[in-house]
Amino acid sequence: xxxxxxxxxxHELIEDELTLEDKELLKAAKEATYRSYAPYSHFSVxxxxxxxxxxxxxxxxxxxxxxxxxxxxxxxxxxxxNANYPNNAVVSLCIAARDTRGNFTxxxxxxxxxxxxxxxxxxxxxxxxxxxxxxxxxxxxxxxxAQDMLPVSFNASYLE
Length: 160
Ligand code: THU
Fold this sequence. Notes:
Layout: E1 10-13, H1 20-33, E2 44-51, E3 56-60, H2 73-84, E4 90-98, H3 113-126, E5 131-134, E6 140-143, H4 146-149
Parallel strand pairs: 4-5
Antiparallel strand pairs: 1-6, 2-3, 2-4, 5-6
The protein binds tetrahydrodeoxyuridine (THU).
Tetrahydrodeoxyuridine (THU) binds near residues 45, 63 and 109.
């Protein structure tokens, strides 16, 4: 038997260390939380992504009384971008969330499994890694690609 170890590098940083471009993306992600529709969880998530032409596209979680019919902020943003700008790669994605009291979370929140799968698909589609920026008031994480967050994933190469 051979053991294969897959590691993920999480860059921990504070807001001041972000580039101007990333600060702008973070601002958009935070603003997007206020457009969330979360009457059931009262947990408002905002996502802002940057396209390879510099444009920012946002999304927020949209819940439904039939719970599984709702959608996370990340997929709302990615599908919005892919549907309207199919020829532009997604290069970075920032996520921020406000808790049930309306405060931004102290720790960064991370995308759910389904969102990771969609993000990996988007990386494959455009043949470009997506830098993931996760916001918390006490600090941020940056992960170099969605693939890093979903090792051993099912991917399109299995269908070839
Ligand atoms: N949610 C997101 O939008 N993104 C995440 O990364 C985690 C969870 C949403 C789904 C649901 O509307 C609410 O947060 C509580 O799970």
